[in-house]
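Continuing the series of single-chain predictions for the mutant panel. This is the parent chain; the variants come on the following pages.
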Amino acid sequence: MIELHLIGIGTGNPDHLTGEARRAIAQADLFLVPHKPGKSDLADLRTSIIDSVRNDAVVALFDMPVRDDTLPYLTRVDAWHDEIAQVWANTMAAHPDAKRVALLVWGDPSLYDSTLRIAVRLDPAPKLHVVAGITSVQALTAAHAIPLNRLNAPVTISTGRRLRDHGWPEDCETLIVMLDGDCTFQTLDGTSFDIWWGAYLGMPEQILAHGRLGEVSAQIIAQRAEARAAHGWIMDTYLLRRHA
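Parent structure:
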């Protein structure tokens, strides 16, 4: 039986690797590394993290399928996951001697990441091992040196799509927003919220901004656009909190 190791690697900084992650990388027979057109830096980051642990790794690059944007959102994501699982299966089949296969997962495999959902589609099913990683949420609060929650208060983690479609969640005081390519914070009352934003968290390219939402929104939007144009990709997240 193939063992599939999903290794949380943090936000791109090799120092985010835990001891458990390093051991899993050191013991893997094969690494599956996705390649996206125009985003070779992401594949290069994964391979550089592998190289920081060992110099004899077998790396199999695979092309990521493209989602069909003509389908409803959940339908197209579901079909996309099926396609990715098939690509994984084909790539592993091309390396029949590899019994310990690994994928490096940004952040943690359990938080707003679909690697686990794709893995369970494999047939025959591999034996799954998950290595927890530092999430973008942790990297964001660490970069800004702030606590995630107010005293004895809950936190909501959601997406830009849900903020756009449903507005500010009821009874929410602190909101972490992930997967937001449209700067959806623009839809909120800029005088009522504070924002802590970060991109390329934990990496040399890290960018941070913080302040009253209405006062820093334009700055964040401009910085985000400039950084994305420069690098060809961007990973960012932000924390919103009702202004006290």
